[in-house]
Amino acid sequence: MTNINCKDKIETDIIGWFDEVADDSAVVQRRTLRRILEMNHGVEYLKKWIGDIKIEEIDENLLESTYASLVPLASHADIEPFTKRIADGDTTPLLTQQPITNLSLSSGTTDGRQKFVPFTHHSSQTTLQIFKLAAAYRSRIYPIRRGGRILEFIYSSKQCKTKGGIIVGTATTHYYASDEFKIKQQQTKSFTCSPQEVISCGDYKQSTYCHLLLGLYFSHEVEFVTSAFAYSIVEAFRSFEEMWKELCHDIREGSLSSIINIDKVRKSVSGITQPNPELASRIESICVELERADWFSIIPKLWPNAKYVYSIMTGSMMPYLTKLRHYAGELPLVSADYGSTESWIGVNLDPSNPPEKVTFAVVPTFSYFEFIPLYKHKSNYNYQNVNLNSTNDDYIEGNSMPLCQVKSGQQYEIVITTFTGLYRYRLGDVVEVDGFYKKTPKLNFICRRNLILAINIDKNTEKDLQLVVERGARILSKGTRRAELVDFTSHANVTKQPGHYVIYWEIKGEIDEKVLDECCRDMDASFVDHGYVVSRRTKSIGPLELCIVERGTFKKILESYIGNGAALSQFKTPRCTSNKELLNILNVCTIKRFYSTAYG
């Protein structure tokens, strides 16, 4: 069998496997739950709830309801005492029977605090599985050359050990250090441009420079451009705009910039590159033209064989799509798959869909999934046929249900039970079921639950904020001078009464103050939440404040997170923050303030 036929067979086999588990998802989910509970029977966390009940004796049709009745829903606060004991060296079976030797750090961009999450060999295996599955579906629409290269903007943070000897790092760091990362490249026949020394150097600026340099060096071999998040790709090309001349110099001379000061990185990159004056001149000529065109279509111009740009582009990444499309030109943007530090969830089966329309089919073998129905607060809504469980600030909740009972068009919060020791763990993600692939639901990611702007009776989600900012940002193009929104965040300021919303903008370019006044007024008027509108009219919420921060402010926020142990590959700008350190950066860097006159 040729290597090409072997690759085709691997793709056919994995798609065939997914078709089987998707078509029998209800049974697969029950078996997944049974496997998890049998594997981890007797661990301290479960024993508290299940006791000595023998899982193997529970009827399969009663397993899900029995489990849900015995084990309560959990948040990270319930898991944290156990992960702390693991970090401190407690080797008794606390969450899993399999010893936990690694802990992942969550990004911390939701509430400003990183959390420990168990990471095991199963975590790497499911990552390999979803990458192979996603690659098989992409290959059907955008076939790539065997042996081609990937321009991957991937970054590891530095791993460290707790006092109990547990290795701590981001989930991506653990994965890039695993055998599965190498296996993925071999089985998908696509190889990253950068060596391990560049990926793992721990300095994102040096890594980015080397990714770009080697990407240019192998420019005609690159089949697609990717990173974990759209933000990382946009930031890499913003950096390129400033350093392209130095990159051309290094390619022409076969040298390496003095900004690369880590010996192992210099040695590994210098061992790959050689002087190439012809390539340098070609790139230089293209960049001169690109600079005049504000870098429009830079990716296909410099990487002419690239088929698409691939990254997570949903949720908090949506605001970067305009800039990413600017850089990508006519190249398709393909949204990567749906997962979290805690578990992978779903795969993008239709890579041709634009990011705004992407859905993710749940992979029923990865974890056991439950779904909490969510209902918006509406005074005239008839809840008679809804099993209500509780009322929170943002939603009214129904009773959790297994995957096989979800309905199309309904919004849910995802609850996961994992092989890595999380039991009925509330993920905090709001999704909407958008039909089914065979018998597994396809999910549309809506927002994070606890990213809320609220002062009084108002409740505005990350999605609400994003729509408001998009509307305000469109006004920027009306100015006589050219300007674009680089990034944004927000804060509910209640230090003085009445409280009010503050939106922080970083802008590239010059803009008239009267245009910014209009942006501020229009955003304030664009919040449609009834509680906000009533509160503004009665003056129990004050005028929206628009703060313009100096250029580079959001880079300082990034560096603050990286300084606290996060990696660029998992960074997401927090869209709503009460973190004192971030607010201090934002307020110190504010250069102009505008107050809305929308409500008089």
UniProtKB/TrEMBL annotation:
UniProt-recorded name of the protein: Indole-3-acetic acid-amido synthetase GH3.5
Domain GH3 C-terminal: 464-581
Coiled coil (residue ranges): none
Gene label: GH3-8
Keyword Protein biosynthesis: no
Family assignment from sequence similarity: Belongs to the IAA-amido conjugating enzyme family.
InterPro entries, sorted: GH3, GH3_C, GH3_M
One of the record's GO molecular function terms: acid-amino acid ligase activity
Record key words, sorted: Ligase
Superkingdom classification of source: Eukaryota
